Amino acid sequence: MPLLLLLVPVVQAQDQAVLMLGNSYTAYNDLPGLVESTLEPGVAAWDDVHTEGLMQGGLLLVDHLARADGSSGDTAWRDALVTGSDTWQHVVLQEQSQIPGFDATSADLQASWAAAADLDALIAAHGAETVFLMTWGRRDGDALNDHIYPDFTTMQDRLAAGYLTYVDQLSTPERPVWVIPAGLAWQTVHDDLVAQGLDPVDGETAFTQLYEPDGSHPSLQGSTLVAATALAALTGRSPVGLAGPDGVDTDALALLQDAAASTVFDDPHGVIDYPWAWTWAEWEAAAADPAAISQGALRPWLRVEVFGATVSDARLTDARLQLVEGSGLGALGSLEVADAEVWIDGGSLIVDTLTLGEGAVLELRGGTLGGTLIAGANTETLSMTGGQLIATTIDGDLDQLGGELLTGQAMTITGDWTLNPDGGFYQEGPAGWVAVEGTARLEGEFNVEAGSWGSSDEVIVVDAAHIAAEGLTVWSAPGWTLEERTGGRGEQLVLVPSDTGIEADTGSPDPPIGNEGCQCTSAPVPLVWLWLVVPWWHRRR
After folding, report:
1. How many structural domains is the chain composed of?
2. Are residues 306 and 164 in the same domain?
3. Where is mean pLDDT largest: 108-117, 374-383, 415-424?
């Protein structure tokens, strides 16, 4: 992604003005009005968005240029882009529906490229950003150009590649050019039906309902999908849940909004650049304060791709942070997350203190999360479906749907701990027991490493106000048996030496807790690595 050096000071909490240049594809259903009515409720900082459209059926970019550069005299186009006093933040360009997918040798496409470059220069001189509206393939392909457009999918693929060519030709590191991938959102609707085993063009489907009967122009639903995609692409904010125009029912609106969101957000760091999608290296290079992860009216999405990234006392506000496989981020102090999302899909996030405020979401789906305190009052703020979690304190509930909780020292959960069947707990040594102030509901698998315990008389595994161990499997070294007893906070699971090392029957009404002997004798490699890397983060301080 090109560095967004000019965007941060330009796009702030202020009124926005958007000019749209197009033809009947933009004029149908008053797309500029739909974009305005979508941006205003979708971006709290933009409570007064103003959009205008300069549109006429059949216009090409070369026609828009001729009306703007003085070739056609004084026109509304020239007033808007050259001589007038209006200030635009975004100028959206929509080319005729066939031209962008033509072969590079086409005279029409070459003329379009030249016109786009000249329009971009006028837009830049006017202080605005250039945005291309990627249009959609025709429902049944294009009979006039069936050698290149035999069906929707082929036509859409060529149009997408064509619009990205405009972006590649005109973008510079100092002034990137953006694209609204509306055509790809139409493809999402199409492909979702294919995935369900349905023919998207057979009868009245969600896909055919995007079109007018001519199979080319957008219906109201199609234009609504374009507006929803514009919100997501320009701001990084989701259209899901926003009100829609009269004439689009609730179910259809939800489908359109979901399609727009998934089109943009499923791969925001892919082939399309967005003004709110950053790698960590880009953010560090461009942000005045990399620790303050916020971008005004936009909702930034930072992806950590490298190992060894560090930040001190970071604040994640109205933003998203994602760690991918092979990455590593150390917050050398506190990481505060408020009305923001953190997704750990791989790599490692190491913090001294992680505080989850109102509206925060933390999803541990892979990789490793380690910290001294994970604090959050909302029981839904911490979701663990995979990966490995190491913390001395979790302030709140832990619903462990998957992944592994690792302890080498005492750990406290101030709420309830629910260990589901796909989750696990690894206790590295006798000091690594878990204290639960609420209820421990345990259905997963324990792996208790007993190799370094020496002549210990007993080892506490879990100490909770109440323990419900239903279907729990415990692996430990031969010669140890798990017992359930009263004590501590109320109830405890304790390993004690045994000559038999066989399945233990606690006599409780719950199903028996099994001790199958040691078949997992060594700690997972990431655990050993983490005990080494946590002190390293502290030394860096």
Report:
1. 3
2. no
3. 108-117
Rounded to two decimals, the pTM is: 0.86
By the 8 A CB rule, do 387 and 364 touch?
Answer: yes
Question: What tens digit of pLDDT does each residue of 470-524 get?
Answer: 888 888 777 778 889 999 999 999 988 775 433 433 333 333 333 333 322 223 3
Are 514 and 531 in a shared domain?
no
Q: Looking at 152-305, list the stretches that DSSP marks H as alpha helix, in order from N- to C-terminal side.
A: 152-170, 182-195, 220-235, 250-265, 280-286
Domain that holds residue 136: 7-265
Both tokens assigned to 463: 């100490």
How far from 445 is each of 426, 431, 470, 471, 480, CA to CA, in Å? 9, 19, 11, 9, 16
What is the full DSSP assignment across 363-410? Answer: EE-SSEEEEEEEE-SSTTSEEEEEEEEEESEEES-EEEEEEEEEESS-
Q: Are residues 446 and 384 both part of a single domain?
A: no
Alpha carbon 244 to its chain's center: 23
CATH number for position 67: 3.40.50.1110
Q: How far is CA 84 from CA 67, 75, 161, in A?
A: 14, 10, 34
Whether residue 175 has pLDDT greater than 90: yes
Residues 356, 395 contacting (CB under 8 angstroms):
no
Q: Nearest 5°: CA angle at 16, between 88 and 273?
A: 80
CA distances in angstroms from 223 to 95, 140, 185, 252, 330, listed in the order given? 16, 18, 11, 13, 44
